[in-house]
# Entry
Amino acid sequence: MILVVCALPEELRFVAERSNVEIFACGVGPVEAALGTARKLALGHYESVVNAGIAGAFRGRANVGDALLVSDESFADFGLEGGGALSLPGGATLRERERADPALLARCLPLRIPLGRGLTVAEVTATDATAARLAARYRCDVESMEGFSVLRAAAVARIPALEVRGISNYVGDRAHAQWNFAAGARAAAIALESVLDRLTL
# Structure
């Protein structure tokens, strides 16, 4: 069984039901995504996890209506302000980046879906200044609110995972974000259907 995690059911409303796929809406944001995914993985038996849904694109990295496979996710503004390593007791470290499973990504390479880097935020970016700061610091292509959390929960559970995103808007000033939820949802659905075909071969 493959677990597909989205934030809201509407994001994957164009995806057809499959007997070997369970779609789970975890709720919006990194906390809901981490808690919901961890609980599903603790109570169920899944061979892989796919985080799927809409995302915003940083300008010049992708266009509204495009789809991307996300190779790795960073958790924005986590740790020391401005970057750098924190000195924590007992040699503890912070995990602010998680990668998609390389084997799953390799199985999807024949699909020719572009690869990108994701950034998970706790609040939607609404200014061009913040978008520029985040793009410069994290070198990311897309912004979501759940990607890191789902990949991290799967990694802790030792279950391979990857991420599929359809672009619904541009990150930055909301007045110029060119929001098109349906275009992002359709792109996510088309890409996800292709990914699921590859993963169930």
In short: The helical segments are 30-43, 102-108, 128-138, 147-156, 181-199.
